[in-house]
């Protein structure tokens, strides 16, 4: 892919309010996967940080294997994009949970990801949020690369 930067950001800014919303959504959806949108400012140009201002829950369109698969319906993605037009915010990434699995993207996740977006994966063990990881898909290698979450807060910190 010519003209695409290999690393478009190094960290994801995730304040406590959207962070807690993701944790609660993952715990509530357990034992199925939760999924949703990361919303924030981004003009499409490379920058050091993806800033998440809000999150929005999404429907999991998977009809089977919902304990370890999710798909956000394309019409829902388009509706969110249209709603955000002119607001100064856009979809900067996506989040989902991994019930009783590590907070790392799966092969299925990789096959359904796009470069340039932040991907947050929440490990939920026996109904409790345990770990949150941040990743970006490398457009050259097709692998997920870890990214820092900022600020560094314990999962349950509501400050």
Automatic annotation (TrEMBL):
<dbReference type="InterPro" id="IPR028090">
    <property type="entry name" value="JAB_dom_prok"/>
</dbReference>
<dbReference type="Pfam" id="PF14464">
    <property type="entry name" value="Prok-JAB"/>
</dbReference>
<keyword id="KW-0479">Metal-binding</keyword>
<dbReference type="InterPro" id="IPR051929">
    <property type="entry name" value="VirAsm_ModProt"/>
</dbReference>
<dbReference type="InterPro" id="IPR037518">
    <property type="entry name" value="MPN"/>
</dbReference>
<dbReference type="GO" id="GO:0008235">
    <property type="term" value="F:metalloexopeptidase activity"/>
</dbReference>
<keyword id="KW-0482">Metalloprotease</keyword>
<dbReference type="GO" id="GO:0008270">
    <property type="term" value="F:zinc ion binding"/>
</dbReference>
<keyword id="KW-0645">Protease</keyword>
<protein>
    <submittedName>
        <fullName>Mov34/MPN/PAD-1 family protein</fullName>
    </submittedName>
</protein>
<keyword id="KW-0862">Zinc</keyword>
<dbReference type="GO" id="GO:0006508">
    <property type="term" value="P:proteolysis"/>
</dbReference>
<keyword id="KW-0378">Hydrolase</keyword>
<dbReference type="InterPro" id="IPR000555">
    <property type="entry name" value="JAMM/MPN+_dom"/>
</dbReference>
<feature type="domain" description="MPN">
    <location>
        <begin position="12"/>
        <end position="141"/>
    </location>
</feature>
